[in-house]
Amino acid sequence: MAGVPVELTPEDFEEVTQKPGMCVVDFWAPWCEPCHAFAPVFTEAAARFPDITFARLDAEAHEAVAEPLGIDAYPTLVAFKDGLEVHRVGEALPTESLDRMLAALRAVDVSEEKRRKANRERTEAGQRPSGVPEGATWDDGDSEWSFGPKDAKGRPHGTWRYWRADGTLCNECVMVQGRPHGPFQRFHEDGSVSQEGAFEQGQLHGPRTWRACDRFTTERMHEGGVSERVRKTVMHYDHGAVRRVEHFNGQGQRVVPSTGEPYPTRPAHLPGDAELREDLNQWARVTLNADGERHGLTRFWDAQGQLLWEAEFEDGRRHGRCWSRAEGTYADFRVHFEEGRAEGDLACGEWSLMDAQRAVVLTRDLGRAMDEEALARSPVFSNLPRSAEGWRELAKEARADRRYREALLATARACATSLDLQPLRQGLEELTLPRTKDSASEVANDVVQEAGQAWAPMADALMRGGEAATLLRAYAVLLDQTDRPRAALDFLHAAMLLAPERKEYLFTRGLILLNLGVADQVHQDAEGLAEVEPDTARFLATYARALFPRFDFWAGQEPPRCSYDGLPEKPARSLEDIQQLVRKYATRLQAIRGALLQRFKPGATVSWLPPDLSALLGEGPVELKQYEVEGDEDEQVEVDETLDLELGLADLALMLRGDWSALSWLLWSCGETAFRMPTRIAPPADYGQAAGQASQRLWQSRDRKFRGNASTTKPGQGFLFEGVALGDLHPNLVSIAERQYAETQAMFYWLNDPDHVSPWQGNLRGS
């Protein structure tokens, strides 16, 4: 019915889309939120364009229709005219953009589209399409045909032209000795100009103009949030550097790019080259270097033209004088302005806080700037323990050398070691800028969000008065991620001393303790965290059980079950083969166990380590090899039985888990119920179910991991992993289950197929 979208099925899809006239299909999925938000926009458009057939297809339910069309994102709109696909868009369009697309559909010349399609097919076949001159060559990198004169050295020299795969002219420019030099034009598929400008010695120079097109085009100008109301954009270049960008509507009026609304009047006292920063609603005067980075004096004003801040930049970083308004930013209510210096984006030297009359209220020396490389090398981040006195001595040395960042961080470690917070509070009060509580939180949170993986910006934020507990916790996270858990624990404990009310820090401590192998304390932290963040507490407790499970004989503790057909009845390997594989697993497990033990003090009791399996080795460890074998279709398959024992504790624990599971099920497959060398092969009656279960659980884990809530395993459903249903597992914990069953599946694949040479073949962990 005209004006109402049709719900398509595989049976009527071709009939609807291939009939004469215009048709647009919305491919959607039930779980896709943008699809549901777009549905009413699509329906309303159907009423405005009654001459166009509107249709919707549930691509999830009808993959047989969507997949051959290459629909891999939702929503995707595909436009047909007289049965020919002429355009597609892989996003939910706003009303205005959708209307433009539908209007463009009316203007499509089907015979021209068929000619272009035939040309694309010729290009794919390596043949020159019609309209492209003889002698033109195809460039895979640019996806263009090109043709033009050359100089005596074979370099492009003169007017060169470029064509798309469909044979339409897309570019024309003047080349001089291999470089663009002179005017150029780009074209929409309908032949109208899409861009024009000029090069000088290979660099854009002068105005470069983009022009929109009302027909379908592959030329882009409405990207990065630019409204389709913008019909012309002019970017002014100075030898490759962008100096100014202007946007215009169809009537030639300058407009704001994101909305297409008229450009506001610049306050009269601002310089003529000050431009509106629409995202900030501020005016800015910014000079750039050839790489498009801020360079020189940069100034920002509010919408009324009041100066907000100015700073000198050098190649993209603040370097030199900095000044800004600071009302309500500092603890002293009199402060209205701040002024100081920066080196490489880092505050340093003397900073002044001033009142409304520019009289100095407070000065503070922020010390020497320490860049990323210098701070990363600092002993303050060492994983080696020191006494509280040792850290205090380091802080004293750093302070004497005006390395105040290091001094504060060393003091934090001293406080964590001695549980004496006073020296840290005193150091923060003496060395950092005294912000209000809200301002301190904002500074700290901003830098953690933007640069939480870097050493220097967080220390700089600390000196500028950023909230210390937040920054010290961020350092703890970074140190833990770089395998320095002892250092991480010091910084986290200092943060907890500063902000004891923040129970959520127990989660961070739990993760650090897991990397230290302190499992018992983690469960206590999970209990404390449950008061404020029960879901996070459950994750932490389950993660602890996953990393440090009870290492007993896992196989056969529950009857194996799967829904696969064609399962094997017994292993296809000889007893000798199985015994040799048992030795390899035991060798790997003993090596991992030994590597983990070395991370603790001699004589320490590590309750979660698996039992000693040396009884399985007889004459000692066997050789673990790395080599290649020939797979299907002469493909080389890597076999890697070796271990990287330098990995972090958590990675070693997960490796241990995978091998433990595989060995348990290998022995169970021979009829064993304990870790002893099998002397016969007596598989249980449900052997095939166990082999299938490993593969099915691996598939279920990967389905849950990659499809999330769209997985076939819904919340509360699925096999139990460390006491939690698969459907309720956090994605990170699903990855642990996936890894365990990948190793178990690889073992069963080897056990059931004599053509496989090792469970550590690279091709045995698919699903």
Distance between the termini: 45 Å
Contiguous low-pLDDT stretches (5 residues minimum) are: none
Largest sheet: 10 strands, antiparallel
Rg over CA atoms, rounded to whole Å, is 34 Å
Average pLDDT score: 94
Tell me the overall shape: globular
**SS-based class:** alpha+beta
Sheet-strand content, in percent, reads 15-25%
The percent range for helix content is 25-40%
- Structure annotation, total helices: 20
Number of strands: 27
Structure description:
The protein is an alpha+beta fold and 767 residues long. It is built from 20 helices and 27 strands. Strands 6, 7, 8, 9, 10, 11, 12, 13, 14 and 15 form a 10-stranded antiparallel β-sheet that branches. Strands 16-17-18-19-20-21-22-23 form an 8-stranded antiparallel β-sheet. Strands 1-3-2-4-5 form a 5-stranded mixed β-sheet. A hairpin with a 2-residue loop joins strand 26 and strand 27. Helix 8 crosses helix 11 and helix 18 packs parallel to helix 20. It is globular, with a radius of gyration of 34 Å. The model has no long low-confidence stretch (mean pLDDT 94).
